[in-house]
Design brief:
Elements lengths: L2 E4 L6 E4 L1 H16 L4 H9 L4 H13 L6 H14 L3 H15 L7 H5 L2 H17 L3 H15 L1 E3 L4 E2 L4 E2 L5 E3 L4 E2 L4 E2 L4 E3 L11 E2 L4 E2 L4 E3 L3 E2 L4 E2 L4 E2 L7 E4 L4 E5 L5 H4 L12
Parallel strand pairs: 3-6, 4-7, 5-8, 6-9, 7-10, 8-11, 9-12, 10-13, 11-14, 12-15, 14-16
Antiparallel strand pairs: 1-2, 16-17
Length: about 280
């Protein structure tokens, strides 16, 4: 997160942003190692003064459409940030989540430049802000473009906490009234969906630090408690208590979650009472 420091020379307060400083260092190193991408890396990262501006630029590039160009998308995102500067801290928490939890991620610039899970999540954060500002058509346009570009379909009204990782992300679907707590991790193919044609509050409520494995489906207005794990390929149709592991079709409790915060540990194997896998 950005903090403020005071320089001895002039007494001015200057922003100290360790993640952005590290991104700029990584970008300079990447330009040296891969000169063919130098102009791309410079235009996307080093030409900007803030992480927020780099994110707006990168997403506008990826979401641009023949009828809604990248300049307009970038301007719209900047307008959202003017009204909601707190989004900058949330972006940093999401970046840190990927860096800390994904063993394939060794640099902050990896999700910022390349990972569609991070791109889809930040696109949703902009869409959600626009939805609540009454700009629902632009929000739905962003949802549509995110689905087309990233193969991630999150309704603009869905609520996400911070420190979220969408790992690989392909095929993730999240419905309109879903709520996701802080520090959760989803793998590809996860669905937070309804269970029929009912209207109103009809989608899952996911607690904090929950890990949902690849291909898992959580259906209906049910809760998944804090610190729980949903095993890959499971279909969850009933409420899940806190700090347990559920698995199967339909999912049943098979043991404890194994740790206090499964989404941070990313451990997806289960050891039974006899010590076997």
């Amino acid at each position: 997160m950005a903090t403020k420091t005071r320089t001895a020379a002039d007494g001015k307060v200057q922003a100290y942003d360790p993640i952005w400083s590290e991104i700029r260092r990584e970008a300079a190193s990447a330009m040296t190692a891969e000169p063919a991408l130098g102009s791309f890396i410079y235009a996307t990262l080093l030409s900007h003064d803030r992480l927020e501006d780099a994110i707006c630029h990168r997403l506008a590039q990826r979401l641009a459409h023949s009828e809604v160009d990248g300049v307009l998308i970038n301007q719209t995102f900047q307008g959202v940030l003017e009204k909601r500067p707190e989004l900058g801290g949330i972006f940093r928490a999401d970046l840190a989540a990927v860096f800390d939890r994904d063993p394939a991620c060794n640099r902050y610039i990896d999700p910022l430049l390349y990972f569609k899970g991070f791109h889809a999540l930040v696109t949703h954060r902009f869409a959600n802000a626009l939805w609540h500002d009454g700009r629902r058509d632009f929000a739905l346009f962003l949802q549509s473009q995110s689905s087309r570009t990233f193969n991630v379909d999150i309704h603009p009204a869905a609520k996400f906490g911070q420190g979220i990782m969408l790992d690989h992300a392909t095929g993730i679907v999240v419905g309109e009234t879903a709520v996701v707590g802080n520090n959760c991790s989803f793998l590809h193919g996860v669905t937070l969906g309804g269970s029929g044609k009912e209207t109103g509050d009809r989608h899952p409520k996911i607690g904090e630090s929950v890990l949902i494995g690849a291909g898992a489906k959580v259906l209906g207005n049910i809760t998944v408690g804090d610190g729980s794990r949903v095993a890959a390929g499971s279909v969850v149709l009933a409420a899940v208590p806190a700090h347990v592991t559920v698995a199967g079709v339909p999912a049943k409790i098979v043991g404890s979650a194994g740790c206090a915060e499964p989404a941070l540990e990313m451990e997806q194997t289960w050891v039974d009472d006899f010590g076997g896998l």
